[in-house]
Amino acid sequence: MRDELLGHESKDADFLVPAVDIEGLRRALQPHGRTEELIVAGRPVGVRFYPRDAEVRKLARAGIEVAPPRREVSTGPGRHDFEIVVDPSASVEDDLDRRDFTINAIARRLSDGAIVDPHNGRQDLERRILRTVTPNSFAEDPLRLVRGLRFVSQLDLDPDEQTLDQMRAEADSVSHVSGERIGGGLAADGMGELSKLLMGKHPAKALRLARDTGVLVHLLPEFEQSIGFEQESRYHDMTVDEHTFEVVQAAADAGAPLRVRLAALFHDLGKPHVAWRGTDNRLHYYAKPGYATHSHEQVSAQLADAALERLRYPTELRQRVVRIVRAHMLDPGRGDELRARRLLHRYGVGLTFDLLDHKRADLLGKGPANEKDLERLRVFRQVVESQKTSAHRLRDLAIGGDDLIGIGYKPGPEIGRTLRALLDEVVKTPELNTREQLLARAEELK
After folding, report:
1. Rounded to two decimals, what is the model's pTM?
2. In this structure, what are the phi and psi dihedrals at residue 107, rounded to the nearest 5 degrees?
3. What is the four-CA torsion angle of 368, 370, 371, 372, rounded to 10 degrees?
4. Each residue of 132-141: pLDDT tens digit?
5. Could you tell me if residue 63 is left (phi over 0), alpha (psi between -120 and 50 degrees) or otherwise beta?
6. For residues 319 and 351, what is the distance between their CA atoms, to the nearest angstrom?
């Protein structure tokens, strides 16, 4: 209902069926398709239904959630002493009492189309207010802390004071949530709640709220040393956390893909771990014998790798993010065609453009005094675009291993070394990439 009221297309189908238990739902739906148990916070709450009808299945590819009503049952005097039980006799209003936020505690009765809104969720949605339904909302499922932050990012909401107090009180409980629910996603698609937050329109607002309520350091302990860390550098006048939030926001404003936004989140977290003070009385973050054994981008990449693995992100996505972080200090240099070809040779087309996207966000995240660098980067990106079809991979060479064997090379490592040497020369001088010239040069390299 939330998406419908906002005029957005909903990707989820969620139905509440009173007067029937989970097994009854399964029996009723089984003739019409496949069902699987729906688990929330470790408890079975209903079924996910995959219709046999192909046309219906197209409308809800992720399945249709069908559940009986639930209610809260007290198990003691404390604020955590309760459990949520399936109760077919409960009313729709009883079930809505157990939802996370008022904006999600809205239903439409199918029989007459009437809207059931016992907690004024529509009003909160209009006022852009994020409000929990009950004081136990986060205790019932700590993932709701991150989900609430996701709604802040996606819908530009502001929590009311009671919800803020609850977030502060329950912040540490987010560390108990399984990694895939936060990061990798239950479908192993990389789209857990943190990713949805980053893909929203206002991620910096949500990340600041996460920091200020204490949620961020329990969600990502890698941030702990960066919060409030003054960079004391001629290149930065923001703390590491504030700069990070600005870079993530710049990546979001540019419509960057998730891998670039994740890289933006981690790219500078290594700085507090490697900082050393130079003779200029400023802090520096590159490796230097006797001062720091690793550069900040190397340590940031290690932190990103550990965090993304813990949060069960898909391996391919994790490795791509780590590569962006490790290489994010990209320098366009003179911005000429040779520099562009060398970058393409080293990183490939996809990673090179990810690095350029990240570099732009990084510059924007330093503030408005970087117009010259931004313009230089814009021009260099055009140069890279013009060179991306140039020969920069072994398969782009006009000859291959069989051609080398044909002129007397023996199968083995020497062929690979020769082809790599030829590619280095072609990257420098693209005109050399002809069969005749490369074979002649290969003869010289024998």
Report:
1. 0.89
2. -135, 160
3. 160
4. 999 999 998 9
5. left
6. 11
